[in-house]
Each structure stands twice: as C-alpha cells, then as structure tokens.
Amino acid sequence: MQPALDVQVREVGLRDGLQAVAAPLATSAKLAWIRAEAEAGVREIEVTSFVPARLLPQFADAEEVVAQALRLGGLQVVALVPNLRGAERALALGVPKLDYVVSVSRTHNLRNVRREREASLEDFRRIVQARDAAGRHHTTTLAAGLSTALGCSYEGRIAVDEVRRCAAFLAEAGAQEILVADTVGYGDPRQVREVLRGVLAEVAGIPVAAHFHDTRGLGLANVLAALDCGISRFDASLGGLGGCPFAPGASGNIVMEDLVFMLESMGLRTGVDLERLLAVRELAARHLGADQMHGALASAGLPRHYRGAGDGARPH
Amino acid sequence: MQPALDVQVREVGLRDGLQAVAAPLATSAKLAWIRAEAEAGVREIEVTSFVPARLLPQFADAEEVVAQALRLGGLQVVALVPNLRGAERALALGVPKLDYVVSVSRTHNLRNVRREREASLEDFRRIVQARDAAGRHHTTTLAAGLSTALGCSYEGRIAVDEVRRCAAFLAEAGAQEILVADTVGYGDPRQVREVLRGVLAEVAGIPVAAHFHDTRGLGLANVLAALDCGISRFDASLGGLGGCPFAPGASGNIVMEDLVFMLESMGLRTGVDLERLLAVRELAARHLGADQMHGALASAGLPRHYRGAGDGARPH
C-alpha cells in the first residue's frame, strides 16, 4: 500500500519533452528513464503519444514503450491520443489512462490537428464511446486536456468563458480528469486563479490538473496559484525537457525537480525521493545532452539540512 | 508627478550582483546602467555598498557612484552600509536611503561581519543616532535588512521567532523599512507566508520589503506568496545578476525582467517599461558578459499581444 500524497506530480517529458527533440531517443533509453523515475516515486508518467509515426518519428515506438511500461509495478501509465485513431491504438494495448487534447484557441487547434475546435471536442465523445464499446469503461481513464487555456501564440489572450465552455463540454462528454494547459507559457498567477476557478466551477466533482510551461519563468508561481485554488495534480518534465516551438532557446515544461523541491519544502508530500530524482536527471542527460536540461535545483543542490515533507521531524 | 504604483521594484544588481563579480566594473559602466534602468522606470536602485574597499574592491568607487547617481532625477538612490563607519561615509554624501543588514543566523552574522548578531543589532541604534546627529532625520531613510531570514547555509532552518525578534528590535530602534531577505535561496512559499506574517505582526506601520534569491527556482513563487501577505516592495537584479557563494553556478537574485513581467501580467503597475528594461539588460550584458545573466523572459521574448498593467484596454 502506497502512502497517501498531498500532491501528485506527473512526468510528461517522454511525451511533451521528446516531442521537441528531433533525434529519436532509443526505446531502451526511454524505458530506463521511465523505470528509474517510477522507482524515484513518480507514480504517473505520460510515456508516449499515439500520433502517426510519419508526423513524429520520435513516437514510432509507442506500442513497444507502452507494452514495456505496463510491466512496471505501481506506475500509472498514460499516453497522449490526438484523435480517435490514436485512442483505438492505445485501447488495444490496454493503456490505463489516455490524455486527449483540444486547443481552446481555434487557430491553434486548426494548426495543430487541422480540425475545427468543435470537431475536436465532438471527437472526444467518439473516444468515450470507443472506450466503452471496447469494454474498458472501468479500466481506462479518459482525461481531457485544454491546450492554450492561458494564452495562444496565434490569438494572444484566450477568454476565460471559452475555457469554461470547453471544460464543461468535455466533462459532460465523460472526461474523468480535466487538464488545464498553458501550452506556450503565457499564463500569470492571477490569470491562473481566474481560469482554474472558472473551470472548477464548471466541472464540479471531476479532478482538475494543471500543466504549466516555464517559458517566461512563471511556472512555479503558477503552480502556487493553482495550489491556492485546491489543485493537487501537476504535470512537469525532468530537467524541464521540451521547448516552445515559438520561442527558440526557451525552456519548456516546468522542471520536475524544482516542482518537487517546492512542494516538499512546503510540507506537501509528493512521494518522490528528490535525491533519486536528481540521479534520474543525470541518466536522462546522458542520452539527451546536458544542454537540453534546465532547472535551478540541479545547479544549486539541495539546501543544507534539507528535509522533505515525509520527515515528521521537520518544523511544519 | 509620477503615477502611483501597485508594486515597487528595486534594483540591487549593482550591489548584491556585483558583489559576486570579481572584476571591478568601470564606474562609467555602472552609471550608464543606473541611468538607463532609471529611465526604464525603476525608481529605486541600490547603487553601491560602503564596505571597506580592501574587502570588496568592486565598491572602491562608492563615493563617485553615489555622487553621480544623486544627479539623476526621479531616482531613489540607496546604498548598503555594513556598519557605523559605512553609514558615516554615506551620510556625509547625503545618500537619501541606507540599507543596514543583520543576519538572523548568528553563525552567518559572525562569518559575514565578524560580530555577534546582538552587536550588529545594537549598531543599528548607533547608526540612527549618527543620522539624527548629522541633522538628516528627515532626509535620510534608514532601512534594516534581515539576512538569512528564510534559512542559512550554516545553520539550515531559522526559527520564525528569531526573525520576529530581530525585526521588532530594528523597528523599535528606528528602522523605517524592514527588508526580509532570503540570502541563500532556501525559502519556500509556505515559509515566506509564515515569516512575513510574523514580521508584519511585529512591525505594524513600517513598510516591509522582500529580497528573494532564485537559487533553487522558487524566487517568483515566493514573490507571489509575499504579494498575498500584502508585501508590495521587492528587490531584484537585472538578469538575476549575482550568484550564491555556497552554490557555484547557481543563479542569484530574482530576475528583474521576469519579476516585472509577472507583476505587470497580473495587472500590477510597476512603472517599468519592459521593452526598455530588456534593452538595459543588453547594455549590462555587454560589460559583464552574457553568461552572467539569467532569466526566462529574455530568452523567450514577450508574449504576442502582451500588454502591461498600464494599458487600460487589457481585460483585467
């Protein structure tokens, strides 16, 4: 029995991070990373994306990665599915959790998946039906992500009402988790609170997770803003792997090590062993190159006398 | 008449930043930086430190820097004074605001200024007396900083009661501003709230400012935590200039550009023109080397459609 957590952190570097890395990472290296990070205490990992391999060769090994990852104990294996076809591939493999993503920005949705936003929203209904028709209603969790929910590099600001409308649609259609994503790193803490409170009001009872990028340095401040709204599920990537296609050289997802450090320092249990996590970072850096990795904790090291939230002896 | 601000940001790179840079920056380069940043809208700059030049040759030009900076209009010129002798030098020049610093950590205070913490606290009384004896009661503001208030690389955690006690002493002794400083970047948002609420309770009526380092990536999250406590004065340095002597390669102060970006994005007026500030960064980088400069905004650029808090047309 695993101890209860205050906050659940989810690794998305193998999907959102590697998506930005042109050279395919060897399947064995992906699996070594997944295994080591699961052993460090990260209980949910988005291991791949079921996009067509011709579009993203990085994920040509999606089936193999999933099959191997499913053999690891104590790990929630997640895969991104961009459409019904991807969902069918994932369902056939018995992936226990799928992330489907729609962009709230109509322009971004068109450019990203070449469909109208409403068509993408409707597709989620078909994925729910496909899941249920496959008899996997009780064994495959369907999460729905709202991309560009905090801004779009094409459209700029996104109206909160639009985010709420999409969230309500997906919840009604059967989403079991709503993921609010700051895809391009435009969000600020005030906006995060406004958007998350709006979404929470629409989807009462369904867990809401947050996916922030650190493109402009506000990632962890946005996490704090989200914590204040009661959010307790966060995406991050080891070493902040991943970039922003619209900002060459900019960092990508929030940095897993820095996120865990902040949460544990605040007395919030993540279940992650930070020393082991830093060792996983070294492992990933050996394959990907140290210049791909961002993050402050890895440079500065843990504070002297540091104790994580799991240590009952700490002051708060 | 300058418009009212919601938050006041203060540049400390010329003191806290340059303190970590061995090669003296030319006086003319310091003054060009000060002038340009004041023109970008930063209204308070800690321009130097009145430490003995034999200890920190970087500040051998303290008198000259102050004298020139005082000629700039609309700028609050501040100097750090480590002791009574430094305060006397600064008072003789008519510096309008002095920062005196005491470490809450007894060990840090001993190593930093080779005196017991209580001796350093008592010295502040003498500085107040010296200021008043010089007839500068109404023209020189005395701020008192609490170094290592959120942790110490020697002692680890610092008891909140100790921070409160020092703050109360300094307020009683005549401090007109209390600066709570996370000197080594150990603080987390929960602790920031606890410490700041404690200090605010002790020094009712005296402005409290916060000085965070971004050593472990939590700097802006700590700013958000402080904003939530009602703090509206923050130190930062251009490009996060400055390191941590205990963490080679780690970043220093929070990054001014990123701080202003966060605040303005949240609809809080800082008075700073972000595009001009980014140009000042380029100016400083030419003298100091781009590798000294940290920060996310400078890499990623402003979001498309970005509008600062000053734009009445923005949604919030």
Main attributes?
homodimer; 316 residues; 41% helix; TIM Barrel; alpha/beta; disordered C terminus; eight-stranded parallel β-barrel
**CATH architecture title of chain A:** Alpha-Beta Barrel
Mean pLDDT of chain A: 93
- The termini of chain A sit apart by 25 Å
The number of distinct β-strands of chain A equals 8
**Biggest contact:** A-B, 49 and 48 residues
So what's the oligomer here? homodimer
In terms of DSSP E residues, the strand content of chain A is 5-15%
- Overall body shape of chain A: globular
Q: What is the fold-level CATH name, i.e. the topology of chain A? A: TIM Barrel
The CATH first-level class of chain A comes to Alpha Beta
- Succession of helices and strands of chain A: EHHEHEHEHHEHEHEHEHHH
What structural class is derived from the secondary structure elements of chain A? Answer: alpha/beta
* SS element count, helices of chain A: 12
The poorly predicted ranges of chain A are: 312-316
Total domains of chain A: 1
Percent of residues in helices of chain A: 40-55%
Which strands sit side by side, in order, in the main sheet of chain A?
A: 1-2-3-4-5-6-7-8
Radius of gyration of chain A: 18 Å
What's the CATH H-level superfamily name of chain A? Answer: Aldolase class I
Strand count, sense and barrel status of the largest sheet of chain A are: 8 strands, parallel, barrel
